[in-house]
Design brief:
Elements lengths: L2 H4 L6 H7 L8 H30 L20 H26 L10 H18 L9 H14 L6 H6 L3 H29 L1
Helix pairs in contact: 3-4, 3-5, 3-8, 4-8, 5-6
Length: 199
C-alpha cells in the first residue's frame, strides 16, 4: 500500500512544503530609500511651486547675470527654489524607484502619482494668477491656456489611485502607504520652510 493510501487525509510532504512561502528579503532598506526618495520628490515639487509663484509675481519672467541689460530681476529666493527643486526632485525619483523596488511588489506604481502632483499643482498656479494677475499685467490668456492644459494632464490620472494602491503587495501595503505618506508630508513641509526662509 502506498504512503498516500496509508494516510488518506494527509497531503504529501512535498505538497506541504510547496505551500510554505519562501523567505522574503527584509523591506527595511527599501522603506528607508522610499522615505528619502519620496521626500526629495515632494520637496522638489513644493520648491518648484513656490519658485514659480515668485516668478509669476513679477509677470512670469525674470533674469539674472549675463552681458545684457536685465529688464526684470528675479525675486529673492526664486533661483534657489527653482535650481534646488528640479535636481533634488529628479534625483529623489531615482532613489524612490530603488526604494519601491525593495519595499514591495507593486510599490513602484505609487511613484506615478508624481505626474498628477506636479501638473495639478503648477496648473493651479497658472489659473490662480490668471484670475489674480500681478499689478500691471496685461493679458492672462496664456496662463489660462497653460492652467487648463496642465489640469487636463493631471486630474484624470487621479482615477488610477485605487488601482495603484490595490496593486501593492497586500502584506506590505499598509507599511508602504504609511512610508509614502509620511515622506510626502515631510518633503512638502521642508519645501515650505525653505521657501519661507528665502522670502
Amino acid at each position: 500500500m502506498s504512503e498516500s493510501s496509508d494516510f488518506p487525509g494527509q497531503p504529501e510532504i512535498s505538497d506541504r512544503l510547496s505551500r510554505i512561502p519562501k523567505n522574503e528579503s527584509s523591506p527595511v532598506v527599501g522603506y528607508i530609500l522610499l522615505l528619502v526618495g519620496v521626500g526629495m520628490v515632494a520637496y522638489g515639487i513644493t520648491a518648484l511651486w513656490f519658485g514659480m509663484r515668485d516668478v509669476m509675481d513679477v509677470g512670469g519672467y525674470c533674469a539674472e547675470g549675463g552681458p545684457y541689460v536685465i529688464q526684470q530681476h528675479c525675486p529673492d529666493g526664486a533661483e534657489l527654489l527653482m535650481f534646488t527643486g528640479i535636481p533634488v526632485g529628479i534625483i529623489g525619483l531615482f532613489v524612490a524607484m530603488a526604494g519601491a523596488a525593495k519595499s514591495a511588489k507593486g510599490a513602484m506604481g505609487l511613484l506615478l502619482l508624481g505626474w498628477p502632483a506636479i501638473f495639478i499643482s503648477l496648473g493651479y498656479n497658472f489659473i490662480d494668477y490668471a484670475i489674480n494677475p500681478p499689478e500691471g499685467m496685461g493679458s492672462t490668456v496664456g496662463w489660462w491656456v497653460c492652467g487648463v492644459i496642465f489640469a487636463l494632464m493631471g486630474l484624470p490620472a487621479l482615477a488610477a489611485v485605487p488601482m495603484l494602491v490595490k496593486a501593492i503587495q497586500p502584506n506590505r501595503r499598509s507599511a508602504v502607504l504609511a512610508v509614502f505618506s509620511v515622506a510626502a508630508v515631510i518633503g512638502v513641509i521642508g519645501g515650505i520652510l525653505v521657501a519661507n526662509s528665502v522670502d
